[in-house]
Design a protein that fits this description.
Layout: E1 4-13, E2 21-26, E3 31-37, H1 48-69, H2 77-87, E4 93-103, E5 110-117, E6 121-126, E7 130-134, E8 139-141, E9 144-145, E10 148-149, E11 161-167, E12 172-176, H3 178-181, H4 186-196, H5 205-217, H6 225-232, E13 245-254
Antiparallel strand pairs: 1-13, 2-3, 3-4, 4-5, 4-10, 5-11, 6-7, 6-12, 8-9, 12-13
Helix pairs in contact: 1-2, 4-5
């Protein structure tokens, strides 16, 4: 098996005091999770982010539990999502994406396995900054994504799409909620990642991406992915979309340590 691992960092820009997004990364289990609470619950006096936050806390606990009960690199993201869903008792609903770093059936290969519900998701960027994978969005119609909902059989973990993509050392994984992907096109994200490695930045890459998405969300004339999707649905809309913005950046690096879950390695090789 190729000795690789993910190193991850994240950044969150809430749209209000608390926000509706939540995220986690387990270095031990090599699992990422992002969730976006459905804001409509606030009209009923319910904190729309509370469900998402508890869901991700429970997902983190499930990921660590699975890590201790399975072989290395075999954490099942859909099982993590199942346990998190069943153990979350708060009122509310949320999108969710669970991503695990896993051993591929082919010897020496590694993959990302994911269980995704809704319009949170991830992309894999390789080499000079090109996207090799973008997770598909699950939605009933425009701006109406699939979601997990407390005590709902219809809106449960069973609707999650199971995804897998092979990764290589040096790949950069960008995961996020729709606040990222509704405001930045894939090409925008690629450019930010590529430019990041060609400059001396005081910010992390996740913060740089989040700030770029936040800036776009406040623009009233620049075309955004949300605008394009709205127009295609027959809805007149111009500019970015104000929303919570969560970004997780994970670097696939060689694991040169003697034990799983530690050690460092190089990241993307970019010609500046």
């Amino acid at each position: 098996m190729a000795k690789m691992k993910m190193l991850a960092e994240s950044y969150y820009i809430p749209k209000n005091e608390t926000g509706d997004d939540a995220t986690f990364f387990s270095q031990t289990a090599q699992v990422i999770g992002v969730a976006d609470g459905v804001g409509g619950w606030s009209t009923e006096g319910i904190d729309a982010g509370e469900y998402a936050r508890h869901l991700m806390r429970n997902a983190y606990a499930a990921a660590v539990k699975e890590y201790h009960h399975r072989p290395i690199f075999q954490v099942d993201p859909k099982e993590v999502l199942r346990q998190a869903f069943l153990n979350t008792a708060e009122m509310g609903s949320s999108t969710a994406c669970i991503i695990s770093f896993a051993a591929a059936p082919a010897a020496g290969k590694m993959i990302l396995r994911a269980a995704n519900v809704g319009d949170s998701g991830f992309m894999v960027i390789r080499g000079g900054g090109g996207t090799v994978y973008r997770s598909p969005v699950q939605q009933h119609s425009f701006n109406f994504p699939y979601q997990l909902e407390y005590s709902s059989e219809k809106h449960s973990h069973r609707q999650a799409a199971e995804l897998a993509v092979e990764v290589e050392s040096g790949d950069v994984v960008v995961a996020g909620t729709d606040g990222l992907f509704d405001n930045l096109f894939a090409g925008d994200i690629e450019r930010v990642v590529r430019d990041y490695y060609c400059m001396d930045s005081m910010f992390s890459l996740s913060e740089t991406l989040a700030r770029a998405a936040h800036g776009r969300s406040r623009e009233k004339t620049t075309v955004s992915p949300f605008q394009v999707a709205a127009n295609e649905a027959g809805i007149r809309y111009v500019g970015g979309k104000l929303d919570d913005i969560t970004v997780v950046v994970a670097y696939v690096v060689p694991d040169t340590s003697s034990s799983y879950g530690s050690g460092d390695g190089d990241v993307m090789d970019v010609d500046c």
